[in-house]
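Field reference: "sequence" (input) and "structure" (output). Example, Translation initiation factor IF-2:
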Amino acid sequence: MSDNDGKKTLGLRGAGARPGNVKQSFSHGRTKNVVVETKRKRVVVPKPGGAKAGSAGGRAGGDPSRRPAGISDAEMDRRLKAVQAAKAREVEEAAKRVADEKAREEERTRRRAEAEAKEREQREAEERAKAKAEEEERKKREAEETAKRAAAAAAAPAPAATPRSEQPSGRPTPNKPAPAATPRKADRERAQRNKGPVDNRRSGKLTLGQATGGAGNRHRSMAAMKRKQERARQKAMGGTVEREKVVRDVQLPEAIVVSELANRMAERTADIVKSLMNMGMMVTQNQAIDADTAELIIEEFGHKVVRVSDADVEDVIKEVVDADEDLVSRPPVITIMGHVDHGKTSLLDAIRDAKVVAGEAGGITQHIGAYQVSTDDGTVLSFLDTPGHAAFTSMRSRGAQVTDIVVLVVAADDSVMPQTIEAINHAKAAQVPMIVAINKCDRPAADPNKVRAELLQHEVIVEAMSGEVQDVEVSAVTGQGLDQLLEAIALQSEILELKANPDRAAQGAVIEAQLDVGRGPVATVLVQTGTLRQGDIFVVGEQYGKVRALINDKGERVKEAGPSVPVEVLGLNGTPEAGDVLNVTETEAQAREIAEYRAHAAKDKRAAAGAATTLEQLMAKAKEDEDVSELPILVKADVQGSAEAIVQAMEKIGNNEVRVRVLHYGVGAITETDVGLAEASGAPIMGFNVRANASARNTANQKGVEIRYYSVIYDLVDDVKKAASGLLSAEIRENFIGYAQIKDVFKVSNVGKVAGCLVTEGVARRSAGVRLLRDNVVIHEGNLKTLKRFKDEVGEVQSGQECGMAFENYDDIRAGDVIEIFEREEVTRTLD
Ligand code: GDP
């Protein structure tokens, strides 16, 4: 019973004595929001009733009705009254407190709002003052005026600082109402005040916050305060930096990345981004801006602009015009060109074998991309050992024209072929003199005169046809005419009067470059002018280095290489590309600077090209993609020359329906990166004289990337062609298999009109397609519904036999019409 009573009492107290709860909350100094007040109000309103009905009805009506059983009525009454009185007092007190607190809260709010407004004003004033100060300071700097002005400018921020220092004193203001509060409230207020600035910041928010609940406000104001302090500190720091600022000379190239600009000015990137935003340019720190914009920014920050041209870094590579007396003759550089299989490689080998191996007994010839031979009369000739047009064109496209003479090989038993014409055009475009080598003259079918006549059509008039182009009949197999060919070259070279100054900083062109496992990056360089020596510091394309060793075409280490001498250069920091120009510089710093600059420029260029691709070509590509299938491939080769030759061959594969797309090509082993790229695009990897490393092999196996190895370019090209052919949609070919004449037309129930026909040609097949021809005009094309021979449905009817035919979904058939019967077949096509 008493248990029961206790529970009920507690429960009732919980409901009826909410003000009490509020009171408790106050004592902890936590709750103080309107919601609580509202609740209290709500409690206060029912309270008068509650005091009568609640305390009397709730307790006396409920519990007391049971209690009297245990306690005397008088005792119970007494207790009840006491409780009621206490309750009433409590409620009255609470109501009073609520009213008090509300009044105080309002007062506080008002004051806080006032304080906030005041503070805001101060802040604004402060900011205005600071901006003014900054402005003045800038003006001061720009004009470089007297110290007087500087003092004035320095004085300006001082008043600005005053309001800031006043801030803390401004804050206590809202605290003034506190004494009016009850001691407990005063405590709470003090506690809040102790958080200091919070109060001030919060006061404004509280007015709003009161409506939504105050708990979050305190956190927010704390954070806000911290931010504010942080800002103040930063401002103070920024101000100091600015005052001590060093005016810098900022080297400004044609385009500069924002972060780099910040770096060069020794300013914060964020400030620059901000300035740019103020100028209406939304850029991130990693974006490049043009020099004009950058100049504005540099000036705004009070630095000096030093415009540098992109090419300035390269100025150290002096364009020396050699004096005539310094020039000495140099060997000619010869490239052999011609149609495939006309014997370029054989001829190169024949010349080399005849002149090098014979001359240097036991000498190991080494393929380094070029070699030198001496003619019988002692003239030295340098041959580029990379036959074909790829090397020639890719070199030229990089601005390295190394070839002095082109030997055009045409097979005497063949004729002028497409690549012969291409070679002629290349030579003409490069304004390089040509010598025609009519090869394979040992063959019975050889007809040199036919070749000469054909060349005429392409404006190559050989000497035998009273022109100026030397022609020599040779055979790479028998060696016939080789000496005459070399003589012709020597003569041509004499006419050209090739000269170079060997006594200057060397310049050369990369013929081939590769990453050698043992030796690191190796480049075969054909020295064009000057002399390249061991220990020379150089820049080559985007790479640089110091000549660690020079190796000639015979595999011997040499100390130096003069004009027209091909050498392998060791000591590079990376693999350059064929066609890159090598320049010797004075210091390593110069070499590095140039190389880095070029790498940067190349990156920018690629990025620009990439952007152009995405923007311009996206639509074009989307359009093309509708009807062009692409076969993506990755090419890795042992040397740059091969890689480029393969890429060029790949570009030629395909037609307007199918295309080969070389996603990436490079020199060196197939790596995981290649496999990743291949996987992403569903491309096979073509390795030419290179292999995949172990991890790449594993990844390829896991991801199902196909890696194919080749050592003959034509095998590779053939395979790609076959694969690309697979992408060609099969051609649908129609074969007419028969004709039938309609003799009569019957109507058959359940079938419709049936043509009584005579198969006049070939065969009528049920499964075949049919066309209805009337006066040789196709009036319907479709399928047969039925093919009957007498009463039976049959598969086919031979020529000369009669049959009944009915069309599917068509019955406008007349006697005299002709039915054409055809079959379709899919023909796989190949690329030629
Ligand atoms: P490339 O594709 O122009 O480099 O031609 P190659 O040097 O590979 O030669 C193609 C084919 O022609 C090879 O089978 C050679 O053996 C053959 N060949 C090259 N020159 C001669 C020649 O002077 N006489 C004969 N009979 N065959 C030759």
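The CA atoms of residues 455 and 461 lie 7 Å apart.
The chain has a mean pLDDT of 76.
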